[in-house]
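Lab meeting, action items carried over

1. Structure of the two-component assembly. Owner: GW. Status: complete.
Input record:
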Amino acid sequence: MDLNPTPQERQFRDELRAWLEAHAPRDWEARQSATDSMEARFAFLRDWQRQVYEAGWAGLSWPKEYGGRGATLMEKAIFTEEMARIGAPPLPGILGLELVGPTLIAFGAEAQKQRYLAKILSGEEIWCQGFSEPNAGSDLAALRTEATLDGDHFIVSGQKVWTSYGWAADWCELVVRTDAAAEKHKGLTVLLVDMHSSGVEVRPLRQMTGETEFNELFFDDVRVPVANVVGRVNDGWNVALGTLMHERALLGAGLQITFKRQFTRLVELAGRIERHGRPATEDPVIRQKLAQCYAEIEIMRLNQMRAISRVMETGKPGPEGSIQKIFWSELNQRFQQIAMELLGPYGQLTRGSEFAFDDGQWAYYWLRARGNTIEAGTSEIQRNIVGHFVLGLPKSY
Amino acid sequence: MQFGLTETQQVLKNSARKFFSAECPIAEVRRLMETDTAYDAALWQKMADQGWTGMIFDEEYGGLGLGLVEMAVALEEMGRALLPGPYLSTVLLAGGAIAAAGNRAQKRKYLSRIATGEAHATLALLEGSASWDPEAVQLIAHPTLAGFALNGRKMFVPDAGIADYFVCAADVGLFLAPRGARGLTVSPLPAIDETRKLYQVAFENVPVAEEDILAIGDPARAALERALAVATVALAAEMVGGMQRVMEIAVEYCKARKQFGKPIGQFQAVQHLCADMLLLTESSRSAAYYAAWALQERAPEADAAVSIAKAYAGDAYREVGNRGIQVQGGMGFTWENNVHLYYKRAKASEVMFGDATYHRERIACLTIDKATDKAINKL
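Predicted assembly:
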């Protein structure tokens, strides 16, 4: 056990930090609450990803032959942390970089890798994922979007929901049913679908924060070349599962820095807010709650480090990895509740209110955190996974 | 960065697991807890032969000179076995205080006896106020011609009934008094955790010879804080082992026990309680090992890491115990079931060296009161 960075990790971090300090746009956080259109903000982010790509930092953990850097998981975590520390803008091609790219590298045909990977790295093509459906959420394998073979094309019809970046995407990693007669896990196939094809419609899904992070996708007789199948026909469940494993592996790395930055801001605010005639930072109840929060943020970081060490050593995630999603999502809800409690009646004021703290960001964080225990696998599904796959209890469904 | 046990540490863990499973099965725990001191001389000697009683002491005092991560590994296994008796008090509390405060002659005399298993010892710290803050100590030490004399009363002194030596925290320093010293009276405090006995110790003009003065003033305070920090991490690691065992017992039961024609572990309401146990146990483990490492390295964040580990484990062990009993239904509430033994240890451990509320306040002092922007820049 040695938690000091290795010389190699330190060199990597210093080099990256120097580059970020020289190049990362500093006005991102201000820009987020500014009145720029979604499209203008997205163009800004694409430009940022291109810079990251040109400097060789995109797709860090991808193998070198596909344009990556072959970095270790720990270096990947350092990258995520450093991005969060400096408050760098997110990479808009994140789904391609983290999910679709690794899936193609693992399951794709060589021609697909040549065609798609470089443009994922540069941000030239943006990807989304068509997984969940109105009647297939936690029970993903119950999905019904249908693809029937017609010569050298599949004809796709159906509906997807909760698609992040759907409105901006050029391509979609789509899971469809290709064999209606087979068992539900066995008749699925993964297709790469051009979002500019005729018959694709994207509708924004307005969420309780008022934003439209997600979309509904409608497919009406969309023609997709057979060459766009990833892996084998009717083996889509394994391909999709590979993607979901990637989704769960590294979630905590940047979040713990984001939470710590927010925690620091909250403590500063608490110093300016009065409670019973003294700064809230001197109120024993508030101190208890803030300290608990700090402890849990720190433990989230430690669980993440343990999980990464385990994967690097054994190639397999350990039990500490499986609890990360439950841990951070429930922690963030408690954290944002403490922030709201601290701000009292001011906490509810939203952007544009003259009296709102930090232009209403805390109200937004509080609302947004409500989604955390639902997105990327609900806490209930996560506990099922822990119960069955980690503790070996019988499957409950 | 590598956050996992090294090969040597893993070997140590395996051998500790094997040793305590063989030498301290739960039947033995139950037998010992019914005795006055929860102590067994033969078991203690076997532990000494393995080197456990001197593991963190320097080699020149008969120890193995191992680090605090290794200590955490061993304590985790002791906690899993629910090892009864005076290990924590002898090796970590008294031994730790002597190692931090004593001069060479004192260390040679006392640590080597502890390491060989000849001697048991404890730390008399807490008083009627039940405050873990060293500032709250009121035991009076006044100078005499031959050294000092101690007057006052200590409470919640672990394993005093078997201690050969008492490290006594007094208003001006740390002193050592042997068992049977004139004016020193030990009386038991019956409490829920019968595997680790507690006592009241009264001091009435207890003489301390000059060679038994461990430290006076600031060095005494620093030594006490260091020993308490190490013992707190050791306890947190022990608690992790206990949580691990409770979870194993509960999960095993949930697989075997059937209702409505199914193993109860198939019901999500039950399964999710088990998942929570895993979350609490693994998170406590991350925090405890990190604190051991930070303390070993004397890292700047070590103080916060110790308090985070103890605050979290204090709540977590109790919650794991709660769920471990709940999923076993009526069986979980019976004397025959073993989880209540862990549940009681959890409660006793929660309040030992400060509960979660106490440690959260320490975390607040370290993170809220000190300039947090500095702490963040350092990340």
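2. GW to write a short summary for the group page. Key points so far: Residues 122-217 of chain B form a domain with the Butyryl-CoA Dehydrogenase, subunit A; domain 2 fold (CATH 2.40.110.10). Chain B is about 55% helix and 15% strand.
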